[in-house]
Design brief:
six-stranded antiparallel β-sheet, 182 residues, globular, three-stranded antiparallel β-sheet, 5 helices, alpha+beta
Amino acid sequence: MEKELKIGQKIRKYRKEQKLTLQQLADRSDCSKSLISKIENDKAMPAIATVARIADALSLETSALFNAKARSSSSSVFESPDFENEMTTTEVGYQAYPFARKLAGKTMQPFMFVAEKGKLQTHSLQHPGEEFIYVLIGQMNFWVGKKCYKLKRGESLYFDSSKVHKVEPISKKVQYIAVFVG
């Protein structure tokens, strides 16, 4: 069985395959050269929006950086993941799990996120497309532009993700599903 590469190792592999320098990838992804270097050397775990920008700069689907063994299919069933051990902690403090990471050619990216009050650094996101979120556990303020939505377990929000948005946990822990399209 082939060893699974970490996100940073995959970025370096794809960057080198495309004969790009760190600076070229940084310029294409609107990241700093220093950040790209830290990510490639597993010194920083980028936010999902950063991974998406890097993937786009490399002409890849975001999921390609989470799992190298993607397969094409119009539908697929996945085994129940072990979230406790398979979630990745990002540089801004939330945990993420990419569902359907082994499926190539998809137009949406479903994720499970966990954000804990006091551990999540204040940050904003903005990326092309649309997004749907559904709260599984806890409560959060979810900002889209200047509008704040107070969401609790069982509530959802659909919005234009090209608008600046951010998560602010209200409860100690909030767990939610997010689906990115576009």
